[in-house]
């Protein structure tokens, strides 16, 4: 019994120390997004391929600019660095993501992003894709 208690205690302490041990204690680490579904509640699934590729893009939309209608076949995660993003869906529903918010993009769903603000909209987008395949498909 005491052996199990000590073993359990060691496991808990090692898990607690592992996260801190990975980085310098002077770093400030803030969770931005942890989810298993998209902004529409779709289950996230990763592409299975031997040639996986992650792409990170900083995207700026000028005031009044839209991305154009498109969809994604791969998971996309975004962080709004500046401004407010309006996502218009093919079913006329809209989603809004304000500065300093994050979300998982819709998958296999026609949509477009828009900046209806008066300043630039800046996004950081991470695509979990496959080499040689497009990050988005135009309508």
Summarize the structure.
The chain is of the alpha+beta class. The protein has one helix at residues 2-21; strands at residues 52-61, 70-71, 76-82, 85-89, 94-97, 102-104, 111-114, 121-130, 137-138. It has one helix and nine strands.
Explain what you see:
The protein is an alpha+beta fold. It has one helix and nine strands. Helices cover 14% and strands 34% of the residues. The strands form three sheets. Strands 1-8-3-6 form a four-stranded antiparallel sheet, with no helix packed on it. A three-stranded antiparallel sheet has the order 5-4-7, with no helix packed on it.
Succession of helices and strands: HEEEEEEEEE
Biggest pleated-sheet summary: 4 strands, antiparallel
Beta-strand segment tally: 9
In DSSP terms (H or I, runs of 4 or more residues), the helix count works out at 1
Distance between the termini: 64 Å
Helix percentage range? 10-25%
The strand order across the widest sheet is 1-8-3-6
Query: Which class best fits the helix and strand makeup?
Result: alpha+beta
Tell me the fraction of residues in β-strands, as a range: 25-35%
List the helices and strands and how they pair.
Layout lengths: L1 H20 L30 E10 L8 E2 L4 E7 L2 E5 L4 E4 L4 E3 L6 E4 L6 E10 L6 E2 L1
Keywords:
139 residues; alpha+beta; 4-stranded antiparallel sheet; 1 helix; 9 strands; 34% strand
């Amino acid at each position: 019994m005491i052996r199990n208690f000590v073993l359990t205690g060691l496991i808990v302490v090692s898990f607690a120390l592992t996260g801190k041990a990975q980085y310098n204690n002077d770093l400030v680490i803030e969770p931005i997004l942890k989810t298993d579904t998209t902004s529409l509640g779709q289950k996230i699934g990763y592409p299975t391929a031997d040639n996986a590729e992650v792409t990170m893009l900083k995207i700026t939309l000028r005031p009044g600019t839209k991305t154009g209608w498109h969809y994604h076949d791969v998971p996309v995660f975004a962080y709004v660095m500046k401004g407010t993003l309006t996502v218009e869906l093919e079913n006329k529903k809209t989603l809004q993501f304000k500065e300093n918010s994050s979300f998982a993009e819709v998958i296999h769903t026609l949509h477009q992003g828009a900046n209806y603000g008066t300043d630039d909209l800046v996004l950081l987008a991470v695509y979990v894709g496959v080499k040689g395949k497009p990050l988005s498909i135009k309508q």
